[in-house]
Amino acid sequence: MAITLPKLRISTPTEPILPGRGFYQLEEDSLYVQVGFFSGTRHFFSFLESSHVRFEIDSHGHLIFIEYSLPRRQWRVAEPFSHPQVVEPADIRWLDFREQITEPTPLTNTLRTDLLLQFQECEQTWNYYLGDSVVLQVDNRDNLAGIWISGIIDDLAGQEISFFRKKLRNL
Asked: Is the pLDDT at 26 greater than 70, yes or no?
């Protein structure tokens, strides 16, 4: 059964803002976004997906990884392209699992280093950190409105994401 927009539970943050970064895999024409650390307690449990996007979620309902397989040459350049001005920390739990979701509209800057996966247009949204370069947007009912990924790094053969993960292990 397909759900239109994933439902989220937003509450007071319980930990600092996690590291997060987008890596564009040049040989695969896919964007990989890691959110937070991988550890024994924080690993894949379930997913939400559409034709081009897959959200991987841990057993506590936290988003840990995004894969977006639409090549960036097909992302729509939106000018002006401006990030949310107010972003708050929060404890974000994904409440839906193993479902098909709405296909987002990819909006990007001219350099294609920032991306908004827009799931719905809203007059008013609230913005929360998933990671330091990854921001979640929700509507007034805590439904997913969009995900902003900033500072996307070109990656060849997974070298950059591997370096990122090694650096996180040493923190």
From this structure: yes
